[in-house]
Amino acid sequence: MSARRRAAPGAGVAGVVAGAAAGAIALALAPTPDEVHTLALADEPTLGALADAHRAIGDTLPVPWYALAWLARHVVGGGPLAARALPVLAWAAAAALLALALAPLGRRAAVVGTLVPTACELVFLGAFARPYAVVAALVAAAVLAWAVGVERPERRGPPATATIALGLAVLLHPTAAAVLVAFAAAELVVARPAGGRRRWLLALAVAAGPLALVVADLGATADRQRAIPSDLGPLAPLTSLASLGLPFAVLLVAAALSAGVELHRRGTTAIAPLERLGWLLLVLVPPVAVAGMWATSGVWLHRYAAPAVLGAALVVGHRARPVVRAAPGLAVAVVVLAALALHARATVVGDHLTRAGLDEVVAELGLDDPGPDPVPIVVADPYVFELLSRTGALPGDPPLRFVGDRAYASSPAATWDERRAELDGRAFVLVGSPDASRGLLGTEDGERAVELGRAELRTSSGGRPLVAVRVEPAPG
Questions:
Q1: What is residue 1's predicted lDDT score, i.e. its pLDDT?
Q2: Residue 103 and residue 137: Cα distance in Å, rounded?
Q3: Strands of the 428-432 sheet, one edge to the other
């Protein structure tokens, strides 16, 4: 029985642990602004309607991701939690595939290395209804194929598998093309028969093909994004790894020192091929992804370099091998990973709006007791409107209306005059920022406005002040 077959139970355990960690975060968090795009487009009745809405909104994520989310929505159902089922499963699959790739190191080292992504703050991506967890699973599949190809260079299946996995990853998010650079660099530093190297380089070139389609589809959307103020600079590749957290950075430094000592003692052959790929993913993906975003849209988010954390898993798995062979070393590794995972979860939950936090916002706005006859609620913030309409946070199921410019496919633009005409002199509650509320109210003679409450909606990009005002029509 091969090492990977023997490692299958351990890979399954790693997948369950990673999926459980991501799933717990998915249950705790309210939908993020970016996730609402996924929810809205996945609700479109047909794929053709989805493509039309995607163009109208000007979203920069490729259509294939939304098509995948649309298909998943029709399998597992709608709603924020159902939309997160796909990334949670993908995060678990990525962990299991990495464990199989690391299997020749032994079960202990394989599982320890595999759980590294779940022990850092990027575990959030496994609970995030966007393409990053699926991309991670596809890259992990390519890593496994590459590892098998190194061991069995005569086999043609691994390059074909990697071509499909990496090509799909690029279709889902263009920054996945940075992974191709790391794989190509690995081909140049790993001993392989000339024919095998040619096959792999050809496979990587084919996998890069979808990038042309994705970049061409950006079109005017990229031009609009270039107008957004950006802090993209030469240090972005380094800061992209800040989301891993300081404790995890210390772990990586320790791995680097260990590799340096071994290199000094034994020479370059001490670094196994899969560990070399890990270092190349860790070092090359951030700067290449930064360069790609600089050339296309100018917008940079740390999660664009997320595949680098898979490289960190490969490195730590190899570096931990001599440590976890003994029971005390394994115990220390488990305690360290558990502590990092708890710290990561606390950081992620602390940085984002939770479902409990959303309930508190509703209560602070005075919307938790609608009374026997709920009045319509007009929301002048697209994200808040989507939150209230999709989460069931408002008791009594009051009628919801949106006013403002279109930001999501499911929130068509509506003017204040149109909404006032629909209300036809009835009482209503206006929810929005204090400035927006002041600008909209006071246009009708004799109406009475009473503030119900104020709250701050916390998001990963900062606080968002809100006020709820009940408007009573003029008497008579």
A1: 47
A2: 17
A3: 400-402, 377-379, 428-432, 462-472, 448-459
